[in-house]
Amino acid sequence: MTHSLEPSGFLPERLSAQAIWRWRLLDAAGEPVTAQETAPEPGPRFTSQSDAESWVGEVWQELAAEGVDAVVLLEGDREVYGPMSLHP
Predict the structure, then answer these.
(1) What is the pTM assigned to this prediction?
(2) Exposed site from 8, 11, 33, 73, fewest CB < 10 Å?
(3) Angle at 39 between CA 85 and CA 14, to 5 degrees
């Protein structure tokens, strides 16, 4: 099952990286990875923390199935929280 990468809070690519919320996806070693099916690079970007959290809540199982072990929430380049495990 594949979810849309464009939730209501999705931002166009032309907006500043400082004005967006996004997720850094990590493997079991804590290294950044890409989930090609669920969140291909550069990954979805959101207008709010709430939209970003809703999206990861909807797709965490697909991310885990693609080898994502944990996620870190970013606002621009600032780490907000994480790593947060995707394991139940």
Answers:
(1) 0.78
(2) 8
(3) 120
